[in-house]
UniProtKB/TrEMBL annotation:
Keyword ATP-binding appears in the UniProt entry: no
Organism: Pseudochryseolinea flava
Keywords associated with the record: Signal
Keyword RNA-binding belongs to the record: no
PANTHER family named in the record: DIACYLGLYCEROL ACYLTRANSFERASE_MYCOLYLTRANSFERASE AG85A, ENTEROCHELIN ESTERASE-RELATED
Top-rank taxon: Bacteria
Signal peptide feature range: 1-19
Lineage: Bacteria, Pseudomonadati, Bacteroidota, Cytophagia, Cytophagales
Stated name of the protein: Esterase
Length: 369
């Protein structure tokens, strides 16, 4: 059984410490890499603290809220020049975080930062440099391509959007066909999340350049997860998205891209609520996918999988600040049942994109062996 409270978040409260302020904050702050062009704030320092500066001369209160729900946050102090400034009381987890500015009770985006679709709205984003960020950095390597496609959907009466990553060399090697990973976002996000926030294309480019993976195509589409409101995720009905994915998108991709269009060369993975979708669809459609991956998205039990011979890989992951013991024990149970199951725990992260970036980095080399 899926334990919904553990997996439905695509955002969660970031690990910012809002306790007593650390007096040993290094003053080596630099603009975040996700700032608007020419904007100095927000800033981050080498310890992972974030500093914000907002112009709101007529405001009575300004705070920065990181994570879902707008609770907690960093209270800013007003200066004589009308700027409100403040620093997080503790270091943030490495990687990407959504946030917004609360001004006198109203929710706004930071004009200094780029925006990313999350929490069912465009949110400001900040990047905390990570010790292992090289695997998703933009490097001087051969790059694949991410293209938008519009595919017909009779079940929804419209054309729907997806993004397709084709690996380096796809346009040159006209005779080569590729396996496909269908990669799902979480609740509150959409089909832009895995490349914009997750940097999936750069992760794949770098792995390819290092010769660590068998190149494959990635397809990312909207999982219809935001059709239900927060707190009512239990009402989500997988059959509608399952129809879009299995009966409409997959045939379109197989007819428009050079795929290897069989079950052995098709994988599905998802983060958070996208993991819930992955679990339900892979169990409902065992003849469609052979590689399963849940990233902070629940687990499988051996009895869930009727024909174990059809499943080539089960990959389970989460952050060390989530519930890693459950992921490890689930993978061990699958292994004991004779399945190829792998668990991965992202050290020092919670229900957030650094966990999922690292998870994809660990998953990709295991696919389509």
């Amino acid at each position: 059984m899926i334990r919904y409270p553990l997996i439905v978040f695509s955002l969660f409260f970031s690990s910012v410490l809002f306790a007593q302020s650390d007096q040993n904050v290094k003053e080596d702050f630099k603009p975040s890499s996700l700032n608007q062009p020419g904007q100095e704030y927000p800033q981050v320092n080498s310890q992972g603290y974030a500093r914000f500066k907002i112009l709101a001369p007529a405001a009575d209160s300004v705070r920065v809220s990181l994570g879902l729900g707008g609770k907690g946050g960093t209270k800013l102090t007003k200066g004589n020049d009308g700027f409100w400034t403040g620093t997080t009381a503790g270091p943030m987890d490495e990687g990407f975080h959504y946030y917004n500015i609360n001004i006198d009770g109203g929710k706004f985006n930071d004009p200094g930062a780029l925006n990313f679709y999350g929490s069912v709205r465009w949110e400001s984003g900040i990047e905390i440099p990570a010790h292992d960020q090289a695997f998703y950095e933009l490097r001087d390597v051969q790059h694949g391509h991410v293209q938008q496609i519009l595919f017909p959907s009779k079940s929804t009466g419209t054309s729907r959007r997806a993004f397709v990553y084709t690996p380096p060399g796809y346009d040159k090697n006209k005779s080569t066909r590729y396996p496909v990973l269908y990669l799902q976002h979480g609740w509150g996000e959409d089909e832009t999340a895995w490349t914009s926030q997750g940097r999936a294309n750069l992760i794949m480019d770098n792995l390819t350049a290092e010769g660590k993976i068998k190149p494959f195509i990635i397809v990312m589409t909207y999982g219809m997860t935001n059709e239900v409101k927060w707190g009512r995720i239990h009402e989500f009905d997988i059959k509608h998205f399952q129809t879009v994915l299995v009966d409409e998108l997959i045939p379109y991709v197989d007819s428009h891209f050079r795929t290897i269009s069989d079950q052995r060369n098709r994988a599905m993975a998802g983060l958070s609520m996208g993991g819930m979708e992955t679990k339900l669809i892979t169990l409902n459609k065992p003849d469609v996918f052979s590689h399963y991956a849940l990233l902070s998205g629940g687990t499988y039990k051996p009895e869930d999988i009727v024909d174990k011979s059809k499943v080539k890989l089960v990959f389970l992951s989460c952050g060390s600040k989530e519930r890693p013991d459950g992921v490890k024990s689930a993978a061990a149970a699958l292994q004991k049942a004779g399945m190829n199951a792998v668990s991965y725990i992202s050290e020092g992260t919670a229900h957030e994109f650094q966990t999922w970036r690292r998870s994809l980095y660990q998953l990709a080399p295991l696919l389509f062996k």
